[in-house]
Write a structure and sequence with these properties.
The structure is a single chain. By secondary structure, this protein is α+β, with helices and mostly antiparallel strands. It has a domain of about 240 residues: Outer membrane efflux proteins (OEP), CATH 1.20.1600. It is built from eight helices and six strands, in the order H-E-H-H-E-E-H-H-E-H-H-E-E-H.
């Protein structure tokens, strides 16, 4: 038979165990446990070269005007301002102006800020309790007859003030996964901005060199036309002296007209390239004077940095953006899983109601309540479908990442 001391000892032991269970519960709840798989960055490619055969030690030398032979040099990173290697001040100035004025780059920058603010907004509404202040006044009329009583109707003013506090206890980490998804979207927008910036610079550099090439071709073709016109004049003189035939003159005249037509096409293409350069720099052709680039304005860099694939994947913004989208899909899958688990919501209310403002803040007019609510989905086929859809999106993101990475090597 249990005596009083034994009963008291067992009661204390049970209370101690209960405290341990509750402590473990709150530690688990506040530890940020999240359902779903944790994201792991894909492993870097193990290959050390881009082709099955080894690259030559250097390229063929250029005898025109762009420089000497180029050498492949192993490096850890690509120079950030790589376009400076071409040695063109005009190109550097054009790119600097484009980075300031390009609407495409401004749009990408705004997308980064939007993603950052969305993350901050959701973080503020999920990490911390939400508090609301209530102030109200109403004119009200009551009738005793509605309660089965006799008497006259009565009108009065009712003043209300109070505060509501509510908080979602992220027990299964749905909010944590949602924040993780938004943070990954910030990374995606940031890498997207870097890719847009890199693409803009590459397009300007390519267009500038193309403009120089077209101008050189046009000059060479104009020189050819002048020579052919002189040859045509000589042929006409020879016809007058009986030293050439009419067919020979017609053949030369056709060559002159063809060369003139090709020169006109080159001039048209050069105009289109100059318009493209103005647009890429954030202006119209009428607003900016594009430098007359020539091939002599550029020089080829002597050393070409060769970065192995395992290091390049950490430098290519398009690959990093694709990995960020993979992270987003992984976190969204965790959010979909968390919706299958119970949701725990805590709320508290402190308010006061009085017939006059003078008695509104008296202790007798104060009311309060604390509410803990747990909801568990019992029958909602849509949640399982959302989970399967999120998994399919993750698989698609995985395939797109592999496609992006393999297409870069």
């Amino acid at each position: 038979m249990m005596n009083g001391s034994d009963f008291l000892s067992e009661k204390v032991s049970c209370q101690h165990k209960m405290r341990l269970v509750l402590s473990a519960f709150w530690v688990f709840a506040l530890s940020g446990c999240a359902v779903g798989p944790d994201f792991k960055s894909p492993e870097a490619p193990q290959t050390t070269q881009y082709t099955q055969t080894s690259l030559p030690s250097e390229t063929a030398s250029s005898t025109i005007s762009l420089g000497e032979a180029q050498r492949f040099v192993e490096g850890d990173f690509v120079q950030e301002s790589w376009w400076h290697c071409f040695g063109s001040d005009a190109l550097n100035q054009l790119i600097e102006e484009a980075l300031k004025s390009s609407p495409t780059l401004a749009s990408a920058s705004a997308n980064v800020r939007q993603a950052q603010e969305l993350l901050a907004a959701y973080s503020g509404s999920s990490d911390y309790p939400q508090a609301e202040l209530l102030l109200g006044a109403q004119r009200q009329k009551t009738s005793p007859s509605t309660q089965g009583l006799s008497g006259e109707s009565r009108q009065y003013n009712l003043y209300t003030t109070g505060a509501n506090v509510h908080y979602n206890l992220d027990f299964f980490g749905g909010n944590k996964r949602a924040l993780e998804s938004l943070a990954a979207r910030v990374d995606y927008r940031r890498f997207e901005y870097e890719a847009t910036r890199l693409n803009l610079i590459a397009n300007i550099t390519t267009a500038a060199i193309t403009r120089a090439r077209l101008f050189e071709q046009e000059e060479a073709l104009n020189s050819t036309v002048l020579l052919q016109e002189k040859q045509l004049e000589i042929t006409r003189d020879r016809i007058r002296f009986g030293q050439a035939s009419q067919d020979e003159m017609l053949n030369l005249q056709a060559q002159v007209e063809q060369a003139r037509s090709e020169a006109i096409m080159l001039r048209k293409q050069r105009g289109e390239i100059e318009h493209l350069l103005a647009m890429l720099s954030g202006h119209t052709s009428s607003e900016v004077q594009i430098h007359a680039f020539r091939l002599s304005d550029f020089k080829l860099p002597t050393d070409l940095q060769l970065v192995v694939p395992s290091k390049l994947v950490k430098q290519r913004p398009d690959i990093q953006a694709s990995e960020a989208l993979l992270h987003v899909a992984n976190a969204d899958y965790g959010v979909a899983i968390s919706k299958l688990y119970p949701q725990i919501n805590l709320s508290a209310n402190l308010s006061a109601q009085a017939l006059s403002t003078g008695t509104l803040f008296n202790g007798s007019s104060t009311v309060w309540n604390l509410i803990e609510q747990i909801t568990q989905p019992l029958f909602n086929p849509g949640l399982s479908a959302q989970k399967r859809a999120a998994l399919a999106a993750f698989e698609a993101a995985t395939a797109n990442y592999k496609k992006c990475r393999s297409g870069s090597f």
